[in-house]
Predict the 3D structure of the following.
Amino acid sequence: MNRKLYLSALACLTLAACASAAITSQPWTDSSSTASWTAQPASTRTVGLGIGGSVLADGVTFVGGVQLLTPTLSPLRSLSDLKLVGEDGFVTVSDAGDLILGQIKLDDGGKLIGLDQFRSRRLSLTDGSPITEKVDGDAEGLAVLPNGEVLVSFERDHRIWNYGPLDAPRLPVSAPRPVWPFNENGGMEALAAGDNIQWRVAGEDGGIWDCTRVTCTLVQLPPAEPLKDSQYRITGMDRDPSGDGYWVVQRSYAPPLDARARVRHMAEDGTLGPVMVELKLPGTTDNFEGIAATKRGGKTRLYILSDDNENPLQRTLMLAFDISR
């Protein structure tokens, strides 16, 4: 299919999947916060899985989706990871160097219908100055440790920084990261808290490591040849709320706009289980880079988040799935 026809077809599918009207998100108005958060305007509209393309394994149910609509220069763009905090709250990070908090809005049946109360704060360098350069602020992974401390992994300048708790952020301090020669744009894409204040790291080009406050240990060696964009690569990870392994989202991309995603379970040894969710054209799909897991109603609730790259042909989507397992 030529490029013009492809783009036209994609536009039609996008409109079909996003037919609901936009609803302005409730603003954040907590002036008592001392963490230097700034309220951010946004709207959302509900989306479905579209017609065809999506494949859900037995025991998986789609429980709602939303598209985030923001001004062009909003910090609520290029969102790269996702974790849950508090009562239906979430935290995400952008690859421009912003930390964002928001609230998930569910209907009476527990279905995802909106996102509210957005606020952001600029991540800082170790001297306290705000991040301004892409090479410093390309944040890709996010983890919230059991003690509430927030870890952020960056690529280009490959590092993991600990910013302290969300309610009292501090100047970042370095945390152990894998000793590996990551490619400039293929670094520590996925980050997740484990047990006993440890964290797991997955490289976009392959490789898995478990880290403590002292060192990182190799779990799975990266392949001899870095994974290609057209192969499924891990872009987000979160601890299974049962304590048994992790949940990961994988992304595959082939030009011009063939973005696909898969959700799978990862065992403690790094082995990936069967595909539980697959998203591809002609259904709803995009550049999914974040995943968060929790327990709800006796099932595992997963939320996945896409990075729009500030590209008008891409969207920021959050989709929710319940898994019986």
